[in-house]
Amino acid sequence: MRRVFSGALAGALALTAAVLTAPAAGAATNGPIHFGQGYTINPDGTGLTGPNPNRSLYSDYLAFSPDGSRTLYRGQNDAGDETKLMLDNPAFTAPTELLNSTEAGKSFLSKARWSPDGEQIAFRAADESGSRQIGLIAPDGSGLSWLVDEPRIDVGSVSWLPDSSGVVYTATETSTEPSRLCQVRVADSAKSCVPLPDEGANGENFYDNAEVSPDGESVLLSLNTQQVEGQNTVYDVVKVSIDGTGFVNLSQNEADQSTSFAWSPDGSTIAFSRYQGLWTIGADGTGKVRISENSADNIAWQPAAA
């Protein structure tokens, strides 16, 4: 098992600087947005299809391979069953199990993401001791290894740097201490973390669901921004720079929750959920538009076929 330990401050700063200048992957073309239980829609709001009967109720954390030809998601046969990482086609007609929690020796598996070069899949896991891990596995099921093992990794946070050199995630020591945005390098497990802004409701910061932009310069996160007694906690889609600065609240919900979102493959637009449906907004925070009134959890934006 790979173990990750904090290095000296100089080493951490050097790692951060190296990551910030990492070359970005080539620009992709935007295909349809997938959401809910097998709905798809074009980015302009046309061409709504679904639901797809091949999508199980117990499947979530949908993602796509870099070329858009394959899907990746977490599945269960039934509530309470072992969790699995599944590969499939975009129509969900040929599911193949990549890894299950029993085989991995974990109590559950959760969010997984394909590396931009297509070579590896990073995923979240946890064991019965309460420790949480980020694992790596090849799309053919070989090379299972553990990149990060620490108790406070947030459940939905795993995303890749655009050059596939490292994985980004959030970790929270306690609800009243600053959340951290962390990067771990695949080659040698070197780790660097920066604090995230203290912008959560009532002095508590629950950042999660990190999604790195295609150019590697920004990160989308969910954050509890409002808490009113007797009402639901408001979660917003927020954006920070890769170094944790430059906080922007993109969704600015009044009494709603946004915990599912995705970058467009070309990085120009963000799709996100609200109770009232599926919305898109420019990466600069302008042009917010509702494109569907259907329930919009489990969002993934498919790259168009070359």
**Quick one: how many beta strands?**
23
Helical fraction equals: under 10%
Task: Write down the CATH class.
Answer: Mainly Beta
Shape: globular
- Mind telling me the C-alpha Rg? 18 Å
Overall mean pLDDT stands at 87
Q: How many domains make up the coordinates? A: 1
Q: Kindly report how far apart the N and C termini lie.
A: 38 Å
Signal peptide: 1-27
Protein name: Dipeptidylpeptidase IV N-terminal domain-containing protein
InterPro entries: 6-blade_b-propeller_TolB-like, WD40
Family: Belongs to the TolB family.
Description:
- It comes from Amycolatopsis antarctica.
- Belongs to the TolB family.
- This is Dipeptidylpeptidase IV N-terminal domain-containing protein.
- Keywords: Signal.
- It holds the Pfam family PD40.
- The protein has one domain: 6 Propeller (Neuraminidase).
- It is built from two helices and 23 strands.
- The N terminus is likely disordered.
- Strand 7 and strand 8 form a beta hairpin.
- The protein is mostly beta strands.
- The strands form six sheets. A four-stranded antiparallel sheet has the order 3-4-5-6. A four-stranded antiparallel sheet has the order 7-8-9-10, with no helix packed on it.
